[in-house]
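Chapter review: from sequence to fold.
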Amino acid sequence: MDSLDREVLLALQADGRKSNLALARSLDLSPSAMLGRVRRLERSGAIRGYRAIIDPAVLGITVRAFVVARLREHSERSIMEFEKGIKNVPGVRACYHVTGQFDMVVELALRDLDHLGQLIRVDIARIPGVMNLETMLILAESVFGEGWPNVLEA
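The token string follows.
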């Protein structure tokens, strides 16, 4: 991956609907060269897909939360069981295996507090290996994560 590939990725991250012609012009490439570069980035997995950014309220999502889990043991089997179990929980937006006081951080997006309580008490607490759960409601999002930062320029 060269610096031009990074520029293409950042440009598409900022506006995934940008036409190939506009993208090529903005980076001073021919449209055919740009199309080939984008297709190569897609095939390599550098571009995982294209999505619309949707207002969660339109989907009836009124509650967002982080649930942190401590596992009984910090073994590969225990981590894999948790990851397998959490994939089946509706409303899970992301799950991270982390260091520190807790082992897993789960982001949830749900319709209401009753739904949150149900998921915690039933779906998440019953995953094998869960020892302790703590929930943090998200009150506001002060920095909206629209993409990955250009860490090479930071």
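Two observations follow directly from the output. Residues 33 and 75 are 47 Å apart (CA to CA). The two ends are 19 Å apart (CA to CA).
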